Structures are given as C-alpha cells and as structure tokens.
Amino acid sequence: MPEESEKVLAFEIERDGDTAVVKCHGRLVAGTTEELYHAVKDLLPQSKVVIVDLEELIYVDSSGLGALVRLHVSARRLGCEFKLLHLGKQLRNVLKMTNLLSVFSQYEDHGINIA
Fold first, then answer.
1. Does this model's pTM top 0.70?
2. E strand or H helix at 10, and its extent?
C-alpha cells in the first residue's frame, strides 16, 4: 500500500522577479489537479515565465496531463512561457504517447537555478 505522502499532491511556489517556480511532490491525479491548476493559473498574468518542477512527482494520470495542457494553453494566451522541468520517466512516456513531448519546453540543462 502506498504511503500517505505518495497519495497526495503538494506544491510550493517560489518567485524570483518575473519568474515563478512551482515545485510539485507526490501524484498529479484526478482529485488533486484543480488546486494546482488554479494556483498556477493565478501566477500567469503576473509572470513572464512559469516553471513547473516535476522532479519529485511520482505519477501523472490523464487528469494531471489535462491540467498541464490547460495551463500551457492559458500561458500562451497571456504571453507567458510555461516550462516543465525534470520530467520523470512515466510522464515523459505519457507525453511521447500523446505526441505532447515537443509541446512542452524542457530546460534541465539550461542553468535554471532552483534552490
């Protein structure tokens, strides 16, 4: 049985000027996506760049993928860059299968400092 920390999504938001970094932990699945979606969507109008760090995300289902796509579309409408960082194997495979991997920018080796 999964530990309690593996069942839920937690995230922290860090701001640095016009950039917001959202660090996610746990599982981005049905029932957990709306809180993340609304928190990140609120960042878009006041940010030039929003980076979602998925290093500690252990699983994403179709609802989680849908939330990421909706955020990407909202960011583009507002002229905000929306980037995913540290894609795990499971999410990378899902993005490949859905032909979405090329849609999301990945900046794992581009000097983004996340403390």
1. yes
2. strand 9-16
